[in-house]
């Protein structure tokens, strides 16, 4: 029994979720519902140049289209957000529509802050410091992983400090998330796999995190079932509305779960690896995840047994440490089966940088929610060495 009679929690998820193939067509009526008349479309340079996704959004918006800001880079930065907010002001918009992966959605959250309150994004760092709503934002994910479409956080790189800054506020939730499977068809295979494992990691970390609670657990466990079933299938059939759709649902459910329960050591490591090296966030998570399970085994075995059960891995009757190892191995198999690297050495992280990554992870906001307190860099370094 993971919870006792002293259980108390707050579960909140205000984002309206609109799911369905071709649900992009709902965009104008959703904007009307927000009384918004002029929207800035926020996306990344690759999507703007190499896909028709922006054109599709522009067409759907019709007279509500005010302009496009397409300077988002993977793992967006403070300067990119500030310039986007200046463009939003210049175009006198009253809404932001993001189309893209977590980098575009997080950038749009940052733009919505600076557009509403002024200054630079750097001035608004931290948690629950916003006194009024940010500019209304509709998020349209084109990857199935980050869950940013339903979370109150934005992760933006401070290019100078080589650190990811966290912004968290109830005013940061997108008002609407439009989940349209067809818009995710064009993801390159490694992004499909990496983002799928991002969703999976959110679900597992939501189960072990310090704020874990039963509503988030239910969402997380179903997200795990969906990823295990549909991620390998979507790797074989990238244009399947069914598998793409179920992965979008998994990412959104895992997003709501971790938004409430929080994450832990896996994310503290992945944020730091991502800020210091060009490693995709979901891939950085996938590499650390099994090793963090083993590190936390003595305090979170029950949560990991539940995760294992949702994966179809039976551990009844096994001692805790052996059970957690079986679940960790099943995760390693899942990661390898979708073609992702399983070691940091294989994604360009230099071994000499591991101590600095360990120090960086210690000051990442996610680490305080890890079920086992992590106060020594040597503990993180141990996990990093195992994952190297
Ligand atoms: P991304 O947004 O960085 O996109 C990765 C690449 O995939 C880009 O080159 C993009 O152009 C391409 N791409 C995306 N969709 C595509 C499509 N449909 N067709 C073709 N190409 C496509 O990747 P991501 O993994 O979605 O987002 C990662 C970011 O999200 C990181 O900065 C991470 O810190 C952040 N994040 C935020 C939250 C949150 O709750 N706010 C949660 C997890 C991660």
Explained architecture:
By secondary structure, the protein is α/β, with parallel strands linked by helices. The chain has 13 helices and nine strands. The chain has helices at 27-33, 45-50, 53-61, 78-90, 102-117, 189-208, 214-236, 241-261, 265-276, 281-311, 320-337, 354-362, 377-386; strands spanning 16-19, 39-44, 65-72, 95-100, 126-127, 137-141, 153-158, 163-168, 176-179. It has a six-stranded parallel beta sheet with strand order 1-9-6-4-2-3, sandwiched between helices. A three-stranded mixed beta sheet has the order 5-8-7. Helix 6 (189-208) runs antiparallel to helix 7, helix 6 runs parallel beside helix 8 and helix 10 crosses helix 11 (320-337). It is globular. The model has no long low-confidence stretch (mean pLDDT 96). The protein binds nicotinamide-adenine-dinucleotide (NAD). The site of nicotinamide-adenine-dinucleotide (NAD) has 30 residues, from helix 2, helix 5, strand 7, helix 6 and helix 10. Nicotinamide-adenine-dinucleotide binds at residues 44, 46-47, 51, 74-75, 100-104, 106, 142-143, 145-148, 151, 153-155, 184, 186-187, 191, 195, 198, 281-282.
């Amino acid at each position: 029994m993971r919870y006792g009679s002293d259980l108390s929690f707050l579960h909140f998820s205000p984002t309206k979720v609109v799911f369905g193939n071709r649900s992009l067509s709902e965009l104008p009526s959703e904007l009307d519902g927000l009384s918004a008349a002029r929207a800035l479309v926020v996306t990344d340079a690759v999507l703007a140049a190499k896909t028709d996704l922006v054109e599709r959004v522009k067409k759907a918006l019709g007279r509500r289209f005010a302009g496009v800001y397409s300077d988002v880079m993977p793992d967006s930065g403070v300067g990119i957000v500030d310039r986007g907010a200046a463009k939003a002001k210049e175009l006198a918009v009253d809404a932001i529509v993001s189309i893209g992966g977590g980098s575009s959605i997080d950038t749009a959250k940052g733009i919505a802050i600076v557009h509403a309150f002024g200054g630079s994004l750097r001035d608004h760092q931290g948690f629950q410091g916003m006194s009024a709503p940010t500019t209304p934002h509709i998020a349209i994910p084109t990857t199935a992983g980050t869950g940013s479409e339903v979370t109150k956080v934005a992760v933006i790189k401070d290019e100078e400090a080589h650190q990811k800054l966290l912004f968290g506020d109830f005013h940061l939730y997108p008002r609407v998330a439009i989940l349209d499977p067809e818009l995710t068809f064009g993801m390159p295979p490694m992004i499909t796999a990496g983002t799928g494992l991002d969703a999976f990691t959110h679900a597992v970390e939501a189960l072990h995190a310090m704020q874990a609670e039963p509503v988030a657990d239910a969402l997380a466990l179903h997200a795990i079932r969906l990823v295990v079933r549909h991620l390998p299938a979507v790797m074989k059939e990238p244009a399947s509305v069914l598998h793409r759709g179920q992965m979008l649902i998994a990412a959104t459910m895992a997003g709501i779960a971790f938004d409430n329960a929080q994450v832990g050591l896996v994310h503290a490591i992945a944020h730091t690896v991502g800020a210091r090296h060009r490693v995709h966030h979901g891939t950085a998570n996938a590499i650390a995840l099994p090793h963090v399970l083993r590190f936390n085994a003595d305090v979170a075995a029950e949560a990991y047994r539940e995760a294992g059960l949702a994966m179809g891995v039976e551990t009844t009757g096994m001692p805790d440490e052996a059970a957690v190892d079986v679940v960790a191995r099943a995760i390693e198999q899942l990661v390898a089966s979708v073609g992702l690297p399983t070691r940091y050495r294989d994604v360009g992280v230099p071994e000499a940088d591991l101590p600095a990554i360990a120090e960086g992870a210690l000051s990442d906001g996610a680490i305080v929610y890890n079920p086992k307190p992590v106060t020594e860099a040597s503990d993180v370094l141990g996990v990093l060495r195992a994952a190297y």
